[in-house]
Please model this.
Amino acid sequence: MDLLAESVQTIKGIGPKKAKLLAQLGIYTLGDALYLFPRDYEKYGSVTSIASMQRNQKVSLCVKFQGKPQIIRKGKNKSILRWQAKDNTGTVVCVWFNQPYRANQYKEDISYYVYGKAVMGYGQIQIQNPQVEEYRPEIHNKERWDPIYPLVEGLTQSDLRNLIKETLKILEDNIIDDLPIIVRQKFALCEKKYAINNIHFPMHDKALEWSRRRLVFEELFFMQMALYAIKENLGASKKGLRFSWSNKELENFIKKLPFPLTGAQKRVTKEILDDLKKDVPMNRLVYGDVGSGKTVVAVIALYVAFLAGYQGVMMAPTEILARQHYKTLKELLDGLKINISLLIGGIGNKEKEQIKAKISKGEIDIVIATHAVLQEDVEFNKLGLVITDEQHRFGVRQRATILQKGKINPHMLVMSATPIPRTLALIFYGDLDISLIDELPPGRKPVKTYHVPSSMRQRVYGFIRKQAELGYQTYLVCPLIEESEKIPVQSAVELYDSLKDGALFDLRLGLIHGKMKGEEKDEIMSEFQEGEIDVLISTTVIEVGVNVANANLMVIENAERFGLAQLHQLRGRVGRSDSQAYCVLIADVKNRIARERMNIMVKTNNGFEIAHKDLELRGPGEFLGVKQHGLPEFKIANLIRDMDILKEVQAAAQWIMKLDDTMEKQRILDKAYTKIFSNLGEIVFN
Ligand code: ADP
Ligand code: MG
Model:
């Protein structure tokens, strides 16, 4: 029987009620409990003497209480309890606030362990609100770390400590060390059993350090290897489709594009075409900052797939973006007898079925889709190329899903504008070859960015009006109030209503948000595109990919509530022509970090610089959220704090990939893949 899968209710003290609370922490089984890592520790030193106490330091003492406790009542529930305690070096006063019951708890002649902070009060040194336990030398007369776990209401630290202590006892011999021994030895990592025991109840400082390093290492290692596994499975070992096409037709097409390609676009196009000629599947990331012109590169690749006789699919994270791509492709590929279809949630079921049927018969050449296309009943006749736009929204999981479909082995191209520091790129994109579009189309001027307090909102409206008079359009993005989806929609609707009858009554306003029907969104976006709307009031649905060149002003309300990456993406919606563009961040900043975040946006348009600053200010959580990349969340690793371990892990992973023992290498890859991706389940999109 698998003990790890046993319910937590097998532990004494955990009944249905506590089990329910534990479930809120994601803990159902003993195995789950084992992997609930402490968020912090309380450190207790070994027992010292009263004579050696220092002010403002935490002390552990072994004392007896002396004489009568003194209780001073200070009104209904208020009291001060003072009690003298002594050891063989001297005496000290223990003071408790509002805990009068303690006066009855401790007996003379018994030694107690007392732990608390030594402070000065009434001219003498005292210990305030100390913890007291009956003294047991085997526990108290040594250094001790008590784990502090995340809690929910109704659970206490001692519930969790007890649960985990008991679990450790039961599971002691069931902790399997699956980190390959060669890795453990080469990188001097402690054993899993030791690590698990000591991450919960460390024996000493070093034990905690070793254990943490070992567990972080393991977590990052399997993640890295799983990504390599995807690459191996998609790549080298599998046969791909060797495309062949007429260069003349392709050149003609490129010549007829509305603009000449930039040097960077040409280079990246060539890298892609070289991949497509090979009989191993392409697995490439095109990274380029917002506005660098990734779409046209994707269109060229899709056209090549068509010329080679294959179907192509391009996936976008939002319907708005999918619809926009659909339009762009229709225009750019006009007159070439290519059947292009849009497959998104917003179209009717009947139409959807028709499109799917045509896709499976091979009557449609290029499909533009949201994730709907990934659903199992979409079958391609001859799928040759899969492109995902704004990869950071799609993530690794989807790539793994496509892989799991098994039958198909198409070329894969992912595009992203999310800047990511080099060291981290390897873990997120370790399975991809990377192409960089590091040049903007000619004539682009950096967006001028201003940070203003909300008291200047009327002047911002004046600026919007002025831009409208000059014939330009504005995006006005509403505050993001909280994660919940309803609220931003509400705030957009409210802002729209108040501006329509108020400050901007004389302009043509439009409203767009995620809760609108597909066609409605489509209509509004076309009106905005056609210049029939001066100001588009919006939630963050327009965050990624939207391209309306005549819009040159981006106003963001409550900008302090957005992540820097998001602000950068939003700002990327303007500055898409050669006219000067502006971005106004309305934000009342209340602290240094918020101010610095606004400053960095004002100072630079460079996505990489912004990424670095964001990391510095907030850590990787939000900016490089693992979630964002479609990977499971880390349980213990922290990509900033553990950068050094990450580097070691990467060295380890590369070493494994070069192993002569290919059986061992394959075994490790398979294990990692299963560990990370086996319970993919339903893919959840937002
Ligand atoms: P992103 O990289 O953010 O996806 P897009 O592909 O949306 O950027 O391109 C941004 C804008 O730049 C579009 O209007 C596109 O038509 C235009 N564009 C792309 N490449 C060039 C180029 N080489 N010269 C001029 N304009 C270009
Ligand atoms: Mg784009």
